[in-house]
Amino acid sequence: MRLVIIGGGILGTAHALEAIRRGHDVVQLEREKEARGATVRNFGLVWVSGRADYEIDATLRSRELWEQIGRESEIGFRPTGSITLLRTDAEVAVAEEVAARSDAGVRGFTMLDPAEVTAINPALRGKFLAGLHCTRDAAVESRVALPAIRKYLDRSGRYTFHAGTEARAVTSTTNGATVRDDQGRTFEADIVLLCPGAQLSGLTRELAGELPIRRVRLQMMQTAPLGEPLTTAIADGDSFRYYPGYHGSAVDTLQATQPQDAIADEHRMQLLCVQRVHGGLTIGDTHEYDEPFTFDVDEAPYAYLTGVVEELLGRKLPPVVRRWAGVYSQCLDRTELVHRKQVDDSIWVVAGPGGRGMTLGPFLGEQTADLINL
């Protein structure tokens, strides 16, 4: 079959990868010279810990696929795991409850005392009472993964990537659809997949109308090299408030008895931190849901996150070399892994994985291919 995939982010590229694996021909269009949305403005985490029950199987399958992709292309896949560091008794109680559940083994959860934390991740020499270790978590290099995957796809001889190319129209035909770009070229396809990321107006609205999706803005930063390995990703206890897989009586008690820091509460924050292959740390993040989003970034969340990471590391952070904001799209129905809308027999819109796009991308590509019988 001939597929035209509109969108060069993780969803579009994951769908292209799956289509090529199944023997089809793919043309992929990306309006920027390189993806510039949430695909590259993230942690690069393949995040198993904290996922809800309904998404855990999909997440584990996606992690398996990421590991396979890592054997085939230079995406910087690292099965580093993570440690959620606990600073209060209420946070420890949540971790103990989670670690005692029947699915703790599936998720790779183990409770660690401070000495065990430092044995696994020697860079963690700061203040914490315990750690919740998740061996299933992993990381990829978000800024290099997509070019590396495209390089792998090029070797098939059945893949063409058009950068700096905006799709302007998609028209149904007798045997499929025609895509017209902003240079007047047309591309004939048996199947068209539109993966618009956070760009929900324009062609997306024209094809699919208003989708049950909201947009979410976040702020993140990156430091200069740490100077030593951070052998796992790290999180703080605020992630218990954010991720549904932790929810239970202990989280209810945490919410009731331990108010979140005012800055963290205002910006709906949790700490996630992962080391890049060059040694710097990617640190975040915030969540803003009410549009129109501001065009600038607030300094208070950065100062707060810096303080938390320094307390956990027990040392000063290297200088911050980059700060950025990003926007991703998220299904209003959070039990949907992604929203798919079939426009006609040959045209589909796939959008809204939320902050799970990097984690679930390969699985979602596989799932869509099964759904539409590729």
Describe the structure.
With 374 residues, the chain is an alpha/beta fold. It has two domains: 2-39 and 143-212 and 337-371, FAD/NAD(P)-binding domain, CATH 3.50.50.60; 82-135 and 213-331, D-Amino Acid Oxidase, subunit A, domain 2 (D-Amino Acid Oxidase, Chain A, domain 2, 2-Layer Sandwich), CATH 3.30.9. It has helices at residues 10-21, 53-72, 89-99, 104-107, 114-120, 142-154, 203-208, 239-242, 249-257, 262-266, 299-313, 357-371; strands at 2-6, 25-30, 45-46, 82-86, 109-112, 130-134, 138-139, 159-163, 167-173, 176-181, 186-189, 191-194, 213-223, 233-236, 272-275, 281-284, 320-331, 339-344, 347-351. The chain has an eight-stranded mixed β-sheet, with helices on both faces. Strands 8-2-1-12-19-18 form a six-stranded mixed β-sheet. Helix 1 (10-21) crosses helix 12 (357-371), helix 2 (53-72) crosses helix 12 and helix 3 (89-99) runs antiparallel to helix 9 (249-257). The protein is elongated, with a radius of gyration of 21 Å. The N and C termini lie close together (8 Å). The mean pLDDT is 97. Its cofactor is FAD. InterPro entries: FAD-dep_OxRdtase, FAD-dependent_OxRdtase_HpnW, FAD/NAD-bd_sf. It comes from Antrihabitans stalactiti.
